[in-house]
């Protein structure tokens, strides 16, 4: 930033403060932070805006609006974006603040509601301290929940590929500890980048939970789907048939391979069966995959008849991906994208062990996913460009 620009910014800040006093302090701070982030981006790129230089490490790529809740009120920020091989996130913004705050609140709720254990108390000492009142937790929760609800209900738009999965967490309800289903939907946009579309928490993974979740995605503008990838959840399959009946469905090949294990009669057969299924899925096209499947069905017809029948019925559900460009199949033939998210959720939730209610669980999961989605949307392409 040139000296003239610096002087102009400072004069603007002075005018805002002089005209409105402390009431306008938040607006003034927003301007200063925005200028600081722009300056930091120029430093990282090793080039000023519009400057021609051989030392440039990347390029500016506009700005992304972000609202930060602070002691001065809402700060309306313009977060600088970059493109190229350089990574950049303004140091003025504390990355990960929402998920950390959500984790602390989850811990605090346990303590306040009297459900803490010795382990939970120990974690509270490290994360929050013990001087936490129910009123403080309530106020902090309200602010965070408003922000996360906006993320969960934001418009979606055109999504080419959808991946869905569920995991379970322990929640206390009516004096009992119950398993709560956490549904997660991720997508690949037209530009090849990933995004987390949303999440839902409920004490059931029944068809009605999946159906309501899918209907909400559709209500938020989800359209243009070319493929949906998921595991063989009975409730999910029924819901997909109801909400997206014309969209091709791909059964996760990784889960399919695992599902074969109970039908293998002998332990020493597992490696051979795994290799056969892997060769089927790695075939160059569907015709070759079907040929290899037919050979495997015949191969195990006598030595493992139940496996043979299972393969004939189930393996073809993993063939839908063959209709896509060859260089894109690998990342769309399984739910690995959402599986990695589930591992990250588990890494954070295992600290809490037990959530006092569904809202507490939804808060933490939403915070983790919203941050991940921002990283994906501003990062590199997930899918390569289609084969020409």
The amount of beta strand, in percent, is 15-25%
Q: Radius of gyration from the CA trace?
A: 25 Å
Straight-line distance between termini: 43 Å
Can you give the mean pLDDT? 85
Could you give the order of strands across the largest sheet? 5-4-3-6-7
Unreliable stretches = none
Query: How is the main sheet built?
Result: 5 strands, mixed
Number of distinct helices: 14
Give a structural overview:
The protein has 388 residues and is α/β, with parallel strands linked by helices. It has 14 helices and 7 strands.
Write the layout of secondary structure elements.
Elements: H1 3-20, H2 25-45, E1 59-70, E2 73-83, H3 97-112, H4 118-127, H5 134-152, E3 161-173, E4 176-188, E5 194-202, H6 207-219, E6 227-230, H7 234-243, E7 249-251, H8 253-259, H9 270-281, H10 286-299, H11 305-314, H12 329-332, H13 336-352, H14 358-377
Summary keywords:
388 residues, alpha/beta, two-stranded antiparallel sheet, 7 strands, 49% helix
Give a quick rundown of the structure.
The protein has 388 residues and is α/β, with parallel strands linked by helices. The chain contains 14 helices and 7 strands.
